[in-house]
Design a protein that fits this description.
Strands 3-2-1-4-5-7-6 form a seven-stranded mixed beta sheet, sandwiched between helices. The protein is of the alpha/beta class. The protein has one domain: Rossmann fold, CATH 3.40.50. The protein is globular and about 45 Å long.
Length: 256
């Protein structure tokens, strides 16, 4: 089923690498927690298609897809102009036959969060990449993470301030989280509030490698010239391998 979801997703416009698509499928299918899957930032449906494929196959309920669909506005005020993406998003999920597995929320995440009460098993954050916006998404929705749930940020290892800072400051430095890592540019961690301290050393080791990236992307400034070379060198020290479903289950073990 991951192969089927990957094929559908690869035919959908968006900015996910193939190994990131596969990893999202693994997260959707193999995360040992109860609740819904929440996607903040749907764009034209590339990640939605993969998540919804898994939801339909395994009876995981609808994927809550949150996006105001204002083009590339999630990149901040300096993003290039692009028309609204809603029609293309709907076309993507309809073409894949996944409408019944997606709960569409055409709104800003902060608006959806006002009345949110459901537990979350997978929180996929790929919306506003600014530090303020990314932190807001995490702060508003992370209180609803179920035991054993996973939070994952896209573009943590690309030149955006929000995802890497929030991942380091709010996740890797928190004893509420356990196993953590990267697949391509996705930073992920499992919510383990009861035994998170047992993973403090491994989180600290990952944090040490990640925090060196933050000065290069403060205020969403793109590193250029020698700074770009230094940034890429620092990034190369962060482990970020693809994983199989079996490797993933070995990484997360059983939530307490």
């Amino acid at each position: 089923m991951i192969e089927s979801g990957t094929r559908l997703s690869l035919n959908t416009p968006g900015f996910l690498a193939e190994n990131e698509i596969r990893f999202l499928g693994i997260l959707a299918a193999c995360t040992p927690a109860s609740g819904v899957m929440v996607e903040i930032g749907s764009f034209k449906g590339k990640s939605t298609v993969m998540l919804a494929t898994m939801a339909g196959k395994y009876g995981l309920g609808p994927v809550v897809a949150i996006d105001p669909h204002q083009g590339l506005s999630y990149l901040g005020p300096d993003a290039p102009h692009q028309s609204a993406t809603f029609d293309e998003f709907l076309s993507s999920i309809q073409s894949a036959g996944l409408e019944s597995h997606v709960e569409v929320q055409r709104a800003y995440s902060r608006e959806v969060a006002k009345n949110w009460t459901r537990p979350i098993r997978l929180l996929w954050i790929d919306g506003d990449h600014s530090y303020k916006g990314c932190k807001e998404d995490f702060v508003l929705f992370s209180p609803h993470l179920a035991e054993g749930a996973v939070v994952a940020f896209h573009d943590t290892l690309n030149a955006f301030e929000g995802p890497i800072r929030v991942f380091v400051e709010e996740v890797l430095r928190s004893d509420r989280f356990g196993p953590s890592g990267f697949v391509h540019s996705i930073g992920w961690s499992q919510f383990r509030p009861t035994d998170g301290p047992a993973f403090s050393k491994s989180r600290a080791a990952l944090e040490q490698r990640c925090e060196s990236l933050i000065p290069f992307v403060l205020n969403d400034e793109q590193p250029v010239g020698l700074r770009k070379i230094a940034y890429k060198l620092s990034r190369s020290r962060v482990p970020r391998k693809s994983v199989t479903p079996e490797q993933w289950l070995a990484l997360i073990g059983n939530a307490s």
